[in-house]
Amino acid sequence: MIDLHTHSTFSDGSFTPEELVDMAKKTGLTAMALTDHDCTDGLPRFLAACNSAGIQGVRGVEISAEVEKGTMHILGYAFEPDDANLEGMLKRIRNGREDRNRKIILKLNELGCNISWEEVAGYAGEDVVGRPHFAQALVANGFVESKQSAFDRFLAKGRPAYVDRFRQKPSESIAAIVDAGGIAVLAHPFTLELGLRQLRTLIAEMTEDGLGGIEVYYAEHSPEQIKQYHDLAEEFGLVATGGSDFHGEANPAIRLGCGFGSLHVPDTVLKDLLNRVKQQTARA
Asked: How far is it, in rounded angstroms, from Cα 255 to Cα 261?
């Protein structure tokens, strides 16, 4: 059993890299990737823990990309560590998030939800503050009853405390991953809110830009979506990847390795992924 989409306290997960690996060991995972949002700082600790636990660790990241509708995240795998161009891009994205977070604080205070930056940051673990941490602060102060309510009332796109932030273009994100020796994968395609014909056109364009895979196996994908995305991967010669998108306490219903319980990412996915990286390297 493998899981190629997980998050730690270095972005918006609730477990440290070492805790994630310990859970993976107990769950029976043989391989996993850490794919924190716009951040690779947790990877050295994650890979060291995987090595100690006898689990195959895969270097990963999840990059936010700009699209007109919906949400696009691009997963990067098996890139070289400390690549200057990739790290520079990730830093620009994180700086944009920090600016966004300060604006969210101001908006919440204007709406009568008086919470402080220090309080929100206290929920964030070791690095990047995200909207789930604002939700935790809102719940703790009694402004909402649950994290979901915090998003529904204040933090979701279109709600009164939502603030957009800087993102890279998809082509720029793909290029940064590929230039760093890695493979770029379109994450959870359903969040793009596109029909199948529109999605096919987009994937064709992204493949021309260097896209190497599609996240086919995902906790929130229906059987019909899995088939559609698998067919698209085959059509465009892309690797079909997968993972749980495990965050921990932010969404306790999703479990490491198996999502809501029925997720199964074939072990062959990782072999296909790493073979594609070798092919790209040979062509470079």
From this structure: 7
Which CATH number applies to 91-155? 1.10.150.650
Rounded to whole angstroms, how far apart are CA atoms 208 and 258? Answer: 32
Q: How far is the CA of 134 from the CAs of 45, 116, 121, 131, in angstroms? A: 26, 10, 9, 5
Say if domain 2-89+169-283 classifies as CATH 3.20.20.140: yes
Alpha carbon separation from 6 to 10, 11, 208 (Å, rounded): 11, 10, 27
Whole-prediction pTM value? 0.82
Token pair 């991953």 is at which residue? Answer: 177
Domains 2-89+169-283 and 91-155 share a fold: no
Sorted by where each begins, the domain ranges of the chain are 2-89+169-283, 91-155
The pLDDT tens digits of the residues spanning 13-22 come to 889 999 999 9
